[in-house]
Amino acid sequence: IKKIAVLTSGGDSPGMNAAIRSVVRTCAYHKIECVGVYRGYEGLIEGDFKEMNARSVRGIINKGGTILKSARSKEFRTVEGRQKAHEALKKAGVEGLVVIGGDGSFTGALIFNQEFGFPVMGIPGTIDNDIFGTSHTLGFDTALNTVVEAIDKIRDTASSHNRLFFIEVMGRDVGHIALNAGIAGGAEEILIPEEDLGLDRLVDSLNKSRTSGKSSSIVIVAEGDKIGKNIFELKDYVDQNMEGYDVRVSVLGHMQRGGAPSCFDRVLASRMGVKAVESMLGGETNFMVGLMNGKMLLTPLDKAIKGKTKINLELLRVSDIMST
Ligand code: ATP
């Protein structure tokens, strides 16, 4: 392989820029060419490429978002679209593709490889931490820090007014952000899709916490949790079935996806970029790089896509004990 392309696809996450930088610099280190592809698979189809060298990625390790922009591409879901992408890559002399994104982006990459035999390598970039084959996805740690900072601030106002706050956090169908940030932010309850607490037990538990002398309560609700139809209905239910608290809702939203990546995410991104490029140069294809037990390793893309992440039961127990 003499030339590698890198793109970011799907939802953005903090650390994507650090990963782009790492891919570009690892290519430079090994004296191979590197091109950046703008707007994910959209730009791949259009041939929207830019030659990149070690200096093109200066000053971005600390920036959120992605300098290459991200997109969702309908056309790449079609054979014709992927055919165009393949032609664009061939025309530019590219021989390998690094895809930074989530499982949807990996599915596209895998299909692309199966159709054209084109070498692909995935770097997991999403704040949700919902990808099998890595203990941490890029952006997860930064999002956690952002959420904890927000919880701390909401706690200040909650305790001044004897309020009960429901705070909705991102995470799609999994509760990793909710569970970790909930413990770190001292939440009284954490509602995650993996565990159904039930409305009655929630009200019981909040009543207990109020009578035990707490001046405020914070409940972290994962966006994928199904206890109420949505967080506002949950609030209404608790309002009607509990006394003594002024109940409020705060939906943190997209601020969770932005911001400067944490030290952890910058280091992780740097390691993932090196591993992705060097694995590809070593002849590996159709893998995702990941962090497991402190080491960088490869997981076949199809396993990364289909595998389910598990919630850490020990963390669940810690959170129960902490809310005593
Ligand atoms: P996020 O964490 O935001 O969900 P993602 O990578 O899973 O990230 P998706 O929107 O699911 O985001 O996928 C990104 C892009 O990957 C899609 O817009 C599409 O172009 C491509 N893609 C996804 N699934 C397929 C598929 N089955 N076939 C071809 N391309 C696909």
From TrEMBL:
Cofactor: Mg(2+)
One example GO MF annotation: fructose-6-phosphate binding
Pathway participation: Carbohydrate degradation; glycolysis; D-glyceraldehyde 3-phosphate and glycerone phosphate from D-glucose: step 3/4
Its EC number(s): 2.7.1.11
UniProt catalytic activity: beta-D-fructose 6-phosphate + ATP = beta-D-fructose 1,6-bisphosphate + ADP + H(+)
Binding site for ATP: 11, 72-73, 102-105
Start and end residues of each Phosphofructokinase domain: 3-279
Protein name: ATP-dependent 6-phosphofructokinase
Lineage: Bacteria, Pseudomonadati, Bacteroidota, Flavobacteriia, Flavobacteriales
